[in-house]
Design a protein that fits this description.
single chain; about 280 residues; alpha/beta; Arginase, Chain A; two-stranded antiparallel sheet; 10 helices; binds manganese (II) ion
Length: about 280
Amino acid sequence: MHNKIFADANSNYEKARYVICGAPFDATSSFRPGSKLAPDAMRDASYNFETYSSFFDFDLDEIDIHDAGDLEVAETVDETLSMLSIHANKFVQDGKIPIMLGGEHSLSYPFVEACKNKYPGLGFVVLDAHMDLREEFHGEKNSHACISRHVLDLTNKYVSIGIRSGTRDEYDYVRENNIRMFSSEDVFSLGIEKVISQFRDYIKGPVYLSIDMDAIDPAYAPALGTPEPYGLTPRDVRAVISCLAPYIVGFDLVEIAPAYDSGGTAVLGAKLVRDFIAANAKASK
Ligand code: MN
Ligand code: MN
């Protein structure tokens, strides 16, 4: 079965508070491409779930969600980013909360920038196995491996969680710039609630949440562009979503490469998107 819209995204654009959009682009993927197929894989998977979330005690029937479909992308990443930027700014300026389904991680940039344009004090929280702090990768400035470096040019109010991979230079950069980074080992040894308590006050205010699916352990999420063992659990990610939900003004979920499992990673991705909507909508009721 192929569904063109995300489940329960039954609203038109005008009424909607949440605008889901796909960004089917993976041209800078360095290891296993295929994340351009993830938006539709998550849309298909979204029909697995009840509209009612027992965990958040909230029914997605009660709110207006719009699926804008897949946004147009180009062959090059630079052109794709400028095309996405037009949509991202429109969504945010119209008062919507954008929910971008990637695609690769570089695509977050225009959405973060659009939120920063509207909310100057914007904070940024990213869940990722990787630092993504290179200035360029394989000669490409806008590679998926550089997204956090570029976001830091937009806002210093930055927190990363789940990190367990980077170059020695990237680890030095984090130390030298006092970047708030919580490794997956921090989460494992302290517990996610303790980790959250260490940045909750710092990040208060409008925040953009970017979930690179490879933050999660490949045992739970094997269909990834760059899988990295010793990762977070789905419950860790839900706890972050739940805690930040009241402040989130933009959200994305990127880097699922659906070809590498039998659908389970897209199911988890779709669930996290639905959990974000339920948590945010409940908090703003
Ligand atoms: Mn990653
Ligand atoms: Mn990433």
